[in-house]
Structure formats: C-alpha cells, structure tokens
C-alpha cells in the first residue's frame, strides 16, 4: 500500500506528455546528478517527485529497481506517445484512468475509491473512515501506521483529479490559470454541496468500444466468456473503474458487439458475454488508435 506519494500535486495538463518526452530523451532524467531535474522539467522539486510517481502509476512508464533508477516507456506509454502524445483523446484518458484505478500497490486510495468504496454520495470524513477500515482489514505489517493526514491528502487529490475547479472553486478560476487535471473531462465525480460529493457515470457513448474491449479483455484473463455481473461488480472491472451502472454497461457492450468482437447472451437464464476473438489489451489499444477517426465519424 502506498499513500500520498503524489506530494499533494494532482496531474496537471501537459505533465504526462512532458514526462514521457523527457524520459525518451533521457531515461535518468528524474535522478540525474549532473543535470538538475528541476531545470530539465521546468518544475519544482516536489513536482518532480510527483511527476515521477504519476508516470508510473498511470502505466505510462516503468522504473528500474536496481542502482540505476532509469525510466522507460511501457508498451502503453509508447503507443500513447506515438498516437496522442498530448492526451487529447477521451480514449487515452480512459486508458490512463483504468491503469490508475487498478493500481492497488502504488495508488491505493484510487484503487479503493473505485473498487471498494460503495457510497454514491459522500464527504471527506465518510471516505477517510471507510479507507481506515479497509487498511485495518489487511494483515501485512507494512500496512500499519498510515497517518490520517496522508489519507486526507489522498482524498483531496482524488477530488482535484476528477472535479474541475470551475465546480469546486468557481470564484478562484481564471482562464490564465488553468491547472485542472485532464481526467476531470471523464465526469467521474461531481459536487453535491460545498463539502459533499458523488460518484457520477460518464456517458456511455464517450467510451470507445475498443477501449472498453481492452479493459474487458485484460480482466477476462483469457476466458472465452465472462458473466455480465462480473463486468459490473468485480474488482478492476470496467463497471468499477468507469462508474458504470447496468444500463450504461449494456450500452458499451452493444457498441463492442457491433464491431463483431463479442456476443451478449441474455437467454435461458444466461447473462454472459462471449468473445469471438481472443485479443489482448495492447491489440485493442492499437485498434482504437487505428480506427479512432472512423468511430468518431459514426457518432456524429
């Protein structure tokens, strides 16, 4: 379990693109002793630590464990950098969200929020209390002694990740100071009152069927069919990480069905999805970028 590794900084627009570019140019950019990382990246010391963390927990880079702590792009990171390096497509943001929300080890609060925290409307106090119970249920010695302040900072960072500032602080937002997190475009969290929030479901048409199939395929782990309910409620399922209800999930599945990739069966007591092709995660991602313009046109 890891908490507050973001140094209280949520992902700023342009950060991940800047990080990937610099990792490509200099894999040791975050630990270079000859060239100050702050100068190379143009951000402060704590922001450097934060960016180093965000690149890894969003699945874009991987860092070596040995003496040389170099970072390299993952297959996903390389694909995104090639096709959408500025993270302008919603599909790219959904991929980043999926990797973040399924990272139990290094983004524990995010993992808990999407996979275990079942309150639809909640306050900071609600979340902290439930997260503390979740931590207490784990028996590992490493999971003891997490400060409440760290959990509170994680909650604040989650809210800032998904709630645009024009909603949370409308009087403090200016066009010249746009530091919102790009994941706010997904609409996964909304404001109820000044101190209460709710999980929100994105429009099903905003989820490209190839992106949805990438998530479903990876979580199906090679099975030829999967229960509909599993896609809705299992940990790391598309229903959990994208806040989908049963109707939203069915809309997404129908779109995948139109690709000829799956068949949704809801007869004779069966509620399953059968796969016509055994595609892996990266194959679906590549298909997304290859067909994105065609799909966007079909939605007009």
Sequence of secondary-structure elements: HHHEEHHHEHHHEEHEHHHEEH
**Alpha carbon gap, first and last residue:** 43 Å
Quote the average pLDDT. 91
Category from helices, strands and their pairing: mainly alpha
DSSP strand tally: 8
Helix content: 40-55%
Q: What is the number of independent domains? A: 2
Task: Choose one word for the global shape.
Answer: globular
Q: Which band does the percent of strand residues land in?
A: 5-15%
Largest β sheet strand count, sense and barrel closure = 3 strands, antiparallel
Radius of gyration: 20 Å
Textual characterization of the structure:
This protein is mainly alpha-helical. The chain has 2 domains: 185 residues, no CATH class; 95 residues, Arc Repressor Mutant, subunit A. Helix content is 48%, strand content 10%. The chain is built from 14 helices and 8 strands. β4 and β5 form a beta hairpin. The relative contact order is 0.11. The model has no long low-confidence stretch (mean pLDDT 91). Pfam families: DUF4007. InterPro entries: DUF4007 (IPR025248). This is DUF4007 domain-containing protein. It comes from Phascolarctobacterium succinatutens.
Quick synopsis:
This protein is mainly alpha-helical and 300 residues long. Helix content is 48%, strand content 10%.
Topology:
Blueprint: H1 15-25, H2 37-41, H3 45-57, E1 61-63, E2 71-73, H4 75-84, H5 90-101, H6 108-115, E3 121-123, H7 124-137, H8 148-162, H9 165-168, E4 189-193, E5 196-199, H10 209-220, E6 225-227, H11 228-233, H12 238-241, H13 246-258, E7 262-265, E8 272-275, H14 281-298
Antiparallel strand pairs: 1-2, 3-5, 4-5, 6-8, 7-8
Helix pairs in contact: 1-3, 4-14, 7-8, 10-13, 10-14
Protein name: DUF4007 domain-containing protein
Organism: Phascolarctobacterium succinatutens
InterPro entries: DUF4007
């Amino acid at each position: 379990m890891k908490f507050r590794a973001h140094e209280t900084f949520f992902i700023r627009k342009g950060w991940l693109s800047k990080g990937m570019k610099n990792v490509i140019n200099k894999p040791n950019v975050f630990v270079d002793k000859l060239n100050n990382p702050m100068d190379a990246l143009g951000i402060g010391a704590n922001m450097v630590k934060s960016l180093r963390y965000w690149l890894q927990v969003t699945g874009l880079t991987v860092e070596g464990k040995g003496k040389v702590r170099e970072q390299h792009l993952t297959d996903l990171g390389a694909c995104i950098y090639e096709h959408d390096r500025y993270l302008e497509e919603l599909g790219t943001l959904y991929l980043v969200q999926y990797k973040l929300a399924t990272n139990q080890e290094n983004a524990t609060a995010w993992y808990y929020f999407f996979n275990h925290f079942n309150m639809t409307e909640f306050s900071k106090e609600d979340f902290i209390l439930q997260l503390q119970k979740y931590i207490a249920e784990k028996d590992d010695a490493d999971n003891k002694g997490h400060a409440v302040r760290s959990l509170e900072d994680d909650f604040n960072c989650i809210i800032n990740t998904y709630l645009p500032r024009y909603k949370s602080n409308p009087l403090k937002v200016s066009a010249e100071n746009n530091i919102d997190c790009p994941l706010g475009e997904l609409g996964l969290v909304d404001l109820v009152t000044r101190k209460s929030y709710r999980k929100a479901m994105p429009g099903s048409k905003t989820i490209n069927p190839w992106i949805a199939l990438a998530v479903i395929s990876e979580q199906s782990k090679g099975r030829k069919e999967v229960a509909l309910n599993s896609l809705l409620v299992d940990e790391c399922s598309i229903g959990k990480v994208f806040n989908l209800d049963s109707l939203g999930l069915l809309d997404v599945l129908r779109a995948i069905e139109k690709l000829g990739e799956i068949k949704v069966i809801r007869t004779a007591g069966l509620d399953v999805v059968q796969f016509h092709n055994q595609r892996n995660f990266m194959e679906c991602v590549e298909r997304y970028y290859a067909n994105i313009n065609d799909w966007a046109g079909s939605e007009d």
